[in-house]
Specification:
- This protein is of the alpha/beta class.
- The chain contains twelve helices and 13 strands.
- Strand 3, helix 5 and strand 4 form a beta-alpha-beta unit.
- The chain is globular, with a radius of gyration of 20 Å.
- The chain binds pyridoxal-5'-phosphate.
- Pyridoxal-5'-phosphate (PLP) binds next to helix 4.
């Protein structure tokens, strides 16, 4: 097994101390963790299923799988059979283990990326290549390509045309495409499209996996709730391994997730909260000399004032605002910071005042 990287967040600690010293407290915009309540109907479903003495199914209840398929059809024009839905204990564990499940030896990741794609490749003993342009790969035949749209950290949306090219490229080589779509409901200036949309995949899910998370859509990061769907043969293989390995979503969480996927009202309300926070924070950042790149979707501003990323982190820490340095996400992020909009209205307003 390749060695794992140092946990990068430890490097942020001194800046956290600096930001905490602000008389009105820290505004922590460094991590994209939800702060708003879990929707009442979801909590009720969890409670109602709390008497669950028996082992749940790794494949999940039919109700859960149908709720996931229904949500994809309703909101994203994607049709999957409920049998091809596989619950995840949050999407992070799947991102970390997919290369191992596939026996992958060579994995392609986005140039600026959620660090767990790299961790997953290391756990599998696979080598990685960070590249957004597949042409640069020449005749290579990687086992797995990760894409992430809308992307963390940049908030960039990959257009359907680009996704179509990725699918065609991968199918020619027998490469699996895993599309991390955990921010798909959070398009602002652009509408994200799933890899499983018929306009992208031509109606066949062969070689494709779409990974979804309830963490951001339904404030369920604490419940650990996600699912993967796509190529029936691949999902079947993944189900087999996960059965053997005991990767089972708890039954009360299955019930809660089914309730969350069946309801769009709470997700629309949550979207509005994030839209309003973005609308307050963005002009304040721009007026203070920060340029925002990409960021047309998702939960982050990919921002720069032209300095090195750690200097930018320091500058914001001095006014009590904690953000993540772009270099956490790849060498190309050395002149950016990632600013999350997952703070309460009160903390976002505090950040806006401090930027004036
Ligand atoms: C791109 C991306 N993928 C996956 C995850 C993991 O989400 P979860 O494990 O909460 O489903 C995150 C979390 O922030 C993320 O940013």
């Amino acid at each position: 097994m390749n060695t794992l990287p140092d946990f990068p967040w430890d490097k942020l600690e001194p800046y956290k101390e600096r930001a905490r010293a602000h008389p009105d407290g820290v505004v922590d915009l460094s991590i994209g963790t939800p702060v708003d309540p879990v929707p009442p109907a979801v909590r009720e479903a969890l409670t109602a299923a709390s008497d669950s003495p028996g082992y749940p199914m790794t494949h999940g209840t039919r109700r859960l799988r149908e709720a996931a398929a229904g949500w994809l059809r309703r909101r994203h024009e994607v049709t999957v059979d409920q049998r091809d839905v596989l619950p995840l204990i949050g999407s992070k564990e799947f991102v970390a283990w997919l290369p191992t499940y596939l026996g992958a030896k060579r994995v392609v990741l986005p140039e600026l990326a959620y660090p767990t794609y790299d961790v997953g490749a290391r756990l599998a003993g696979a080598s990685t290549l960070a590249s957004d342009g597949l042409l640069a790969l020449g005749p290579e035949r990687p086992d797995l390509v990760w894409i992430n749209s809308p992307g963390n950290p940049t908030g960039r949306v990959l257009p359907a045309e680009h996704l179509r090219k990725v699918v065609a490229w991968a199918r020619e080589r027998g490469t699996v495409v895993a599309s991390d779509e955990c921010y798909i409901e959070l398009g602002w200036e652009e509408r994200p499209v799933s890899i499983l949309h018929p306009d992208v995949c031509g109606g066949s899910h062969e070689g494709l996996l779409a990974v979804h998370s309830l963490s951001k859509r339904s404030n369920l990061a604490g419940y650990r709730a996600g699912f993967v769907t796509g190529d029936p043969a691949l999902v079947k293989r993944l189900l087999e391994v996960r059965k053997h390995a005991g990767m089972i979503m708890p039954a009360p969480v299955q019930a809660a997730m089914a309730a969350a996927l069946a309801d769009d009202g709470h997700a629309d309300e949550q979207r509005e909260l994030y839209a309003a926070r973005r609308a307050r924070l963005r002009p304040a950042l721009e007026a203070a000399g920060w340029r925002i790149d990409h960021s047309t979707a998702g939960l982050y501003f990919w921002a720069s004032n032209g300095e090195k990323s750690w200097d930018q982190v320091g500058k914001l820490a001095d006014i009590g605002i904690l953000v993540a340095p772009g270099e956490f996400y790849g060498a190309a992020g050395g002149q950016h910071v990632r600013i999350a909009v997952t703070a309460t209205d009160e903390r976002v307003d505090a950040a806006v005042r401090r930027l004036q």
